Amino acid sequence: MTLRPVHAPTYTVDGESLYYTSSRDGTHRLYAHRLDDGGERIVAPDWPGPIPGAILAGGDRLLFVADSGGDDLTHVYTLDARTGKVEKATSQVLTRDSPIMPSAVPGTFYYSARQPDASQAIVMRLRLDASPGESEVYRDSGFGFLSDVSSDGRRGVFLRFLNYQSNRVVVVDLEHGRAHDLYPVQGDATVRAAVFSRDGTRVYLTTDGGTEQASVLALDSASGRVLARFDETQPRTATGEQLVLSRDGERLAVLFNACDHHIVRLLDAGTLKPAVEVALPLGSGELGEFAPDGRHLALAWRTPEHPTAIYQVDTGSGRSQRVNGDGATQDDAGSETSIETLGSEDGLRFPVIVTRPTTPGRHPVIVDFHGGPAGSATIGWSPSARLATLYGIAYVQPNIRGSGGFGREFEASDDGHKRRESFRDIDALVSWLRQQPWVDPQRLVIKGSSYGGYLVAQQIAEHPGRWRAAVKQFGIVDFISFMQTTTGLVRQNYLREIGDPERDRELLEDLSPITRVDRIVTPLFIYAGANDPRVPRAQSDLLAASLRERGVQVEYMLAENEGHGASAPATQRELAVRSMRFVLRNLTTGEPGL
Question: Which of 21, 30, 435, 486 lies 20 to 30 Å from 49, alpha-carbon distance?
Fold first, then answer.
C-alpha cells in the first residue's frame, strides 16, 4: 500500500497523547507522543507511506484510507493502536476520500467516493459495529467532496466541484438521499472548506464570494442566510484552506494560504470575531484538531529552518509550542531564505522564494515550478532546497501568474488563451536571475512536478539554449492525448484552465511541448510513477522515446509502485540522489545556457 502524505496530528480520547506520522527513521511510522513527558512509542512500524487523515474510531481504533501503488483506488482500513494490527474494511473498487465520524453515532462513518472514470461523486456510509458494511446514501450530479457530517449523522455538507474558481455548497439529507444548494445563491465563488456547527443549525465555510476578498461565513444551514462573517486582511486575497471546530463548538480554527506562507486564525464560533491572535513562526502547514478540553489546537508546521513538526497552540493566549523534535534542525549557517517580488513584462508582480548559499561568489541555480497550475510554493522546510545548497546551488521557487493564494484575478490570469502570458513571467524571472551578483547565468537548471513538469518541457522545447539541465517529474507533454487519458476530476478542471481538445485543438497543439520536441537539446532527467492516473506515464514514455531517438541525453526513472508523486521513502531517496547526480554532472560538463 502507498498512503497519501498527510501528517495532521490527532489527539487520543483522553487528550494526553497525539498520534502523528513521520519518516525520520527512513520509513513511515505512526507514533503516539505523550504530552506530559514527551515520551513516544511506535504504533505502526514500517509503513510504505504516510497515514492520511487518521481519525479515532472509538477507543484505540483508528480509521484511514489508502490506495495501492499510487493508483488512487482507495480502501478504508482500521488500525488497532495497541497492537498495530490493520484490517481492510471495504471491498468495492472506488476512489474514497477520508472518512468522517458523526460524534453522536460512533462506529458509523461517511465519505465521498468516485467510481473509476465516473462523472459523478457518491457519498458512502460505512458501519463497523452494528450491521457492518458499506452502502451508497447519496449520488451527486457532478464531481465533489463530502466536507463534514452533522453530529447526529443525518446531514452532510458536500462541496460540488465545477472548477478551481467555482464550487457549490450542498446540504445532503443522508437518510433519504436528497439535497439542496446552500451557497452561493448566484454566480461563482471558491469554497475550499465547510463544516457544521455542533447543533447543526449553521454551516461555516471559507470563500472568496466571487471577489478578491477572503472570508469565513456562518450560514443558516436551512436557508443559507448569512449569520456572521470574518474578512481576512493580511492579505485580503488569501485563500481559506481548512476549518476545524472545537469539540464544544465555541472556537473555529482557520488556515489561510496567504500568498507564499500560511496563517492560522482562531475565531469565536458565534460571532466569527477573532478570539486570540495565533503566534506561529513564519512557515506553512496544516491543522490537526482541538484537544478534547479545547485548551489547545494541534497542527503540523514547517519553517525554513525546521522540518515538519507537531505544534500546540494555547487557545487562551495564542502562543504556540513545538511538542516534538521530529527532524532535528541542521546547521543553517550555510544558506538563507528570502522572498523577492518581481515584475513581468505587462507590469504584473509575482513572488519568488529564494534559498541560496551564504558563501561568496556566483552559484548555479535550480528553478523549481509547482503543480496545479493553481498550486503555490510556500515558505517552509524544503529537503530539495537543502540538498541543493549543500552542493553550493541556489534554489528558487516562483509563484507565477495562475498560482493559488493570490486572489481570483491572479489565479485566472493564465487560463485558456492567456496561458502564454504566464510564460512571460518565466522570461522575467530568468532575466532577473541573470542580473543577480550571486547567480552564475550560464548554469541555470529547471525543475518541476505535474503542471510544473509541463513547464519544464515547455521551456526546454521553446528555449533550447536557456537551461543547462532539466528535471521533469510526471509532467504533461501532449495536451491532446493527456485530456483523453487523465482522470475525470483533473480533466474537468483542465477544460477550463487549459482548453477543450475539441473546441480548442489548435491552442492545445500549440501549447504541447511534443509539437516542438525536435528543438529539445537540453539534458533531461524524467521521473514518473507507473500507476499515475492523473498524468499517465505515457506522457513521460512519449518524451523519453522521442529524445532518445534523436540522441538527446535522457535519464528516465520509472517507479513501478508509485502514482502521482514519490510516496515511499525508498523512492524519494532514489529520486533525490539520481536527479541531483544528473544535475551535478551536467553543471560541470556540456554547453552553458545562452
Answer: 486
Exposed e or buried b per residue across 498-529, where buried means at least 16 C-beta atoms within 10 angstroms of its C-beta: bbebeebeebbeebbbbbebeebbbbbbbbbb
The predicted model scores a pTM of 0.92
Instruction: HSE, CB side, 13 Å, CA atoms: give it for residue 504.
Output: 19
Strand-by-strand arrangement of the 349-357 sheet:
335-343, 349-357, 394-398, 363-369, 439-449, 469-473, 524-529, 554-559
Q: What CATH homologous superfamily does 205-219+228-329 map to? A: TolB, C-terminal domain (2.120.10.30)
**Which residue ranges make up each domain of the chain?**
1-89, 90-183, 205-219+228-329, 335-588
Three-class SS state of 76? strand
> What is the DSSP track for 140-154?
-SS-EEEEEE-TTSS
For 416-452, letters b (16+ CB in 10 Å) and e give eeebebbbebbebbbeebeebebbbbebbbbbbbbbb
Which amino acid type is present at position 336?
E
Architecture in CATH of 335-588: 3-Layer(aba) Sandwich (3.40)
- C-alpha grid cell for residue 209? 464570494
